[in-house]
């Protein structure tokens, strides 16, 4: 995308300069020379940097499918996104390439903000805040890119020539360092909170959480624990777990006290950059059909249900998070629009009763509006929660355990998450290895189907082995080859950049 935007600016320049004998300048047309002038321009520019996050090809639909497809929590079949889920992504896939381009669009716009906003005469505090947002957004994109593609070009200034758009890939170490530098800058510049009119914009805690997460992924355990503890101790404002776990997935309780960063969606339903999300809408149920019906795109894997039922809460009941995460055949289980799960899955349940080796009817419940109040597939206003305080607590427990063993602080963090769900404290006196497994299990119980699991499996070094050991997690043969923990570089990028000519291992 960065290549083609530059070419568009070149074409505009040629048009404006082709006839010097006539004044062909339209004073109402925005150009780089007349745009970066006012505080309003700076605000418009940073809003524009956020906007690709919510498009159809990014978190609005396509990328969300790719992102979650490497999870062993969920079972995919059909054309999309099952190719990614069986380690067979096609480098020429147009939707996949479009998602990749949206990430670069955010980087391009963030770079423009960082280059031009410092020279604008405006409120100094707001200027700092906007620059902090740009640093965060750029770091967030590179976090996604380096984790899913590995080595990519490191573009930190707007291109001023075609050659500058054709950079060679940087090393992963260089990219990680830039991510950490950007997030350090963001923590310094961002506010601790915004007023109600600006809810949803990133804050200091957003950057600290991503910095801690970056350290965690790099196994820099002590640094990770330090960043998470800053958030837990309230250095950047007060964050609390919501009393009702389900409030983390409703449009009526967005940007709440547990939310540290979420992608903002509206319900416009227009085919524009402001397109409402269909990921958090009735479209989820359109794909959760019975195996014996005419369509079956996805289903939860049975081991997730078994994890939820492994232990009971303090009242002797099933973990209450199960009912906000899964839909199965419990008494009067709702499905969608006043239909019951048992009625929709009647044939599947009968077959499963006769042969328990068949796949258990089990579906996702998170983010789904079962009332039918959002009838169109692309008009959900429900935000996608990217970082929750519960995730910070669990990452802190993990980092603290890896750095120092299962300390009191590590126990406090994981048990705080469990207490909200009325689950008992985990046993005291665990070994480091046993505590590690408890944290990994708790991440599934708390964060299932929130797009964390694939990168968790990858950073723990068990992504491929998990699927190879459990072929029942997928409906087709897993086509794993060494290197396919990463996704393929889109062929369009390799064809248009002479300095980027090496495909990721496993896709040649």
UniProtKB/TrEMBL annotation:
Q: Kindly give the Pfam families that the UniProt entry links to this protein.
A: SusD-like_3, SusD_RagB
Q: Which residues form the SusD-like N-terminal domain?
A: 88-213
For this protein, the record's InterPro entries field holds: SusD-like_N, SusD_RagB_dom, TPR-like_helical_dom_sf
The listed locations are:
Cell outer membrane
Q: Which residues form the RagB/SusD domain?
A: 258-507
Please give the GO cellular component terms listed in this UniProt entry: cell outer membrane
Stretch forming the signal peptide: none
Q: Which UniProt keywords apply?
A: Cell outer membrane, Membrane, Signal
Q: Where on the tree of life does the source sit, at the highest rank? A: Bacteria
Q: Does the keyword Membrane apply?
A: yes
Q: Into which family does the record put it?
A: Belongs to the SusD family.
Stated name of the protein: Carbohydrate-binding protein SusD
**Taxonomically, what lineage is the organism?**
Bacteria, Pseudomonadati, Bacteroidota, Flavobacteriia, Flavobacteriales
